[in-house]
Specification:
The chain is of the alpha/beta class and about 170 residues long. About 40% of the residues lie in helices and about 25% in strands. It contains 5 helices and 8 strands, in the order E-H-E-H-E-H-E-H-E-H-E-E-E. Helix 2 runs parallel beside helix 3 and helix 3 packs parallel to helix 4. The protein is globular. The chain starts with a strand and ends with a strand. The mean pLDDT is about 80.
Length: about 170
Amino acid sequence: MSGILIAEDDTIIRMDLRQLLEASGFEVAGEARDGAEAIALARELEPDLVLLDIRMPEVDGVECARRIYAERPVPIVMVTAHADRGLVERALAAGAFGYLTKPFREADLIPAIRAALVRHEELLEARRSLGRQPAGDAVEISITSSAGTVWPLRVERRPDGKVEVSVVEEP
């Protein structure tokens, strides 16, 4: 594992995250103070996972997640004080695999990271499986947050060859 990239504009929270991660045996690949720095560091360091705050200067966490994931699929966990459903859905659509609200505890953070790593691998396998199917066919998977919320996702290969991931709307 090359490590985790932490992107958080609050220095104290960033230091707490680093300490919790290292105490749990994770390596921290780098730290960013804003979204633009996070995008650059993700490109340079190629981390195994990215922790992003949503409200950051320069580029917000949702847009940051979208850009990072578009360049290189990597599990992303959002860490934020904002938990409204619309924001959660935007974060998931941008590439987030986990969502934690502040204040968080180690008992919340570490399982969210482990779940994001597993769910990301499941999504990659779904994409590989989808690549073997005709265009227009979809694969559905569910991502479960550390709080137990289930987010159903649809992975579909479009006729132009691109893969689209979307949140499945409730009936």
